[in-house]
């Protein structure tokens, strides 16, 4: 089981930002992607499909977020 916090850390985002992104995707498709529990989250079958079939544009978007975060961190100070 993973958590939104660990996902946020890997993406260089805050936990509330990741939660909002997931909620927006779920609202857009009208389907639950994850089962949320006190011990973490698990993917539903729809979440597994999204994970396995995610498009190259999503990977590029993740890479862009990471690069922008590293640029903003290196420009501070």
Automatic annotation (TrEMBL):
Q: Could you tell me which residue ranges the HTH lysR-type domain spans? A: 1-44
Q: Show the InterPro entries listed in the entry.
A: HTH-type_LysR_regulators, LysR_HTH_N, WH-like_DNA-bd_sf, WH_DNA-bd_sf
PROSITE patterns given in the database record: HTH_LYSR
Task: Provide the Gene Ontology terms for cellular component.
Answer: cytosol
Q: One MF term from GO for this chain?
A: DNA-binding transcription factor activity
Name the SUPFAM superfamilies for this protein: Winged helix' DNA-binding domain
Name listed for the protein in its UniProt record = HTH-type transcriptional regulator AbgR
What species does this protein belong to? Kluyvera cryocrescens
Q: Which gene encodes it?
A: abgR_2
């Amino acid at each position: 089981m993973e958590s939104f916090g660990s996902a946020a850390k890997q993406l260089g985002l805050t936990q509330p930002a990741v939660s909002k992104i997931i909620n927006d995707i779920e609202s857009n498709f009208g389907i639950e992607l994850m089962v949320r529990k006190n011990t973490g989250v698990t993917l539903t079958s729809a979440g597994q499909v999204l994970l396995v079939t995610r498009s190259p544009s999503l990977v590029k978007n993740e890479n862009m977020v990471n690069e922008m975060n590293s640029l903003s961190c290196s420009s501070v100070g």
